[in-house]
Amino acid sequence: MNTTAGLATGEVLTRRRFFEGLAAVGGISLALSGMDALGFGMASATELPPTLTGDVKGTKIIVLGAGLAGMTAAYELSKAGYQVQILEARSFAGGRCQTSRKGFEHTDLLGNKQTCEFDEGLYINHGAWRIPYHHRSTLHYTKLFGVLLESFVNDNDAAYVYFEKGKGPLAGKPIRKGELAADARGYAAELIAKAASKGELDAALTPADRETFIAYMINEGRLSPKDLAYTGTEGRGFSVHPGAGVNPGPGKELEPFAFKDVLDSKAWRVLSSVTGYEQQRTMLQPIGGMDQIAKGFEKQVGSMIRYSTVVEKIKQTGKGVKVAFKDASGKTGEIEADYCICTIPLSVLKQIDIDASAPFKAAMAGVAYAPVNKIGLQMKTRFWEEDHHIYGGHIYNDIPGIGTITLPSTGWQSQKGVLLGFYNFGSQAARISAMSPPDRAAFAVAGGQKVFPEYAANYENAFSFAWHLAEFNLGGWAEWGEAGRRDAYPVLCEPDGRLYLAGEHLSYLGGWQAGAIESAWQQIAKIHARVQQA
After folding, report:
1. How do residues 416-465 score in pLDDT, each as one tens digit?
2. Which of 291, 311, 346 is closest to 504 using CA atoms?
3. Considering only Cβ atoms within 10 Å of each terminal Cβ, which end of the chain, N or C, has fewer?
């Protein structure tokens, strides 16, 4: 095996092909690190809300939905002098920015009613749960509203990888991710460095490039400079930890897994899991739960929100928009404004009587919404910390229906904790959500028991949430296909008469709070420009 595999005889090995080879051997992280070693890099943009200046002429805006998109629009527009009213179907604001804690109630479309019974101070973010450093729009408001943040451990070398479907001695065995990563990178670096040293990479790489890259591979893989061999590294851990005196003294390093065993395990698939643009090893979360962001917005625009008010019809007139609604008591009413910003998910909006053009309605049908489940499991002890020395991070696995187990990045060394017992999507989410809440919990506990022998004995209670069974969401986030992005998406990004849509579904940051916020920024800028021109 070498990095020239797949090249036709005489084919030039360009830098692009070389980096593709690195990704194939060592994951995207190895390729990106290699790009940095040769002076290439990636950057992200910083954005702020649009500046809305000028006379707004007493313009009235009705916003449908008090999620982050709706509250962002209301906050910025009201600052500029617009008269804003928000209609929210739920009894609370936040949309998918939700946190389940003691007393939180939810009834899904199957009639399953749950009341969260977590101990005081414990919670699970069953909606949005982490923030990348480059989501400047989200971070703009957390700072503005005084929402304090803490680190979210999105990757942890001490956490386990558990793959049942692999082969060899590592299959069905919890393995420290750091051990696996060290060995995969080490062996990959050995192959690449040896190929480079023999001149097999000299086609489009200059001698200086090659020398630099061999030095990088030695550093990356902790190789022997003498023969470029990987024989392990202290970074992967110790079987006997270093300590005082001569015993244990220097300790004893763990022996590396055999390269064949690493490959056969299939567990190497997780090694590129947190190297995407939207995923980093360390991310951010609000202290006390993600809903602190929603509460921050609510302090600013809460007086504008009419809660427990379900939109039944959206009608456009020549001069404005009328929205018919029904409140919690069953009383109906109507509100009129000059413009409407609708942040209702398309999965729900498609079921509402809406006065819009045929192309606009057809475009709304061009997107599906993802079935998504989460479950929080309260444990009586933090055995993952006490017995396994894992502080935060994910337990990657191939257990059907579990998806990811995530250990909390808060409350370390306290007595109890709530971990994410499963996070599943698509057909697996549909299958698990069809279970009763107690059966979902039993399923999650049985899955976790395979990784942690302490799981079942420590389980106390659970709270699960299926976003596709949530009445006012009908899915976790929009899933655009290529044709939908090409044909439907541009149509919905523009107004239909006086109706403007906003939300994560009208961004390329689908499923992220930043997508909702920045979509709102774009639409309010369009409305303001229109008002200024009127």
Report:
1. 999 999 999 999 999 999 999 999 999 999 999 999 999 999 999 999 99
2. 346
3. C
The reported pTM is: 0.85
Contacts of 528 (CB under 8 A, 6+ apart): 50, 52, 54, 56, 77, 80
Q: Which residue has the tokens 């005082």?
A: 244
DSSP, res 7? P
222's tokens:
């902790």
Q: In which element (H, E) is residue 529 found?
A: helix 513-533
Q: How far is CA 168 from CA 171, 174, 266, 268, in A?
A: 6, 13, 10, 14
Contact between residue 386 and residue 491 where contact means Cβ atoms under 8 Å apart: no
By DSSP bridging, strand 60-64 and strand 339-342 are: parallel
DSSP 3-state of 84: strand
Distances (CA, A) of 18 to 6, 38, 308, 534: 11, 12, 57, 56
CB 525 within 8 A of CB 50: yes
Contacts of 117 (CB under 8 A, 6+ apart): 102, 378, 461, 463
The overall longest dimension of the chain from CA atoms, in Å, is 87
Distance CA 68, CA 48 (A): 15
Upper half-sphere CA count for residue 211 (Cβ side, 13 Å): 3
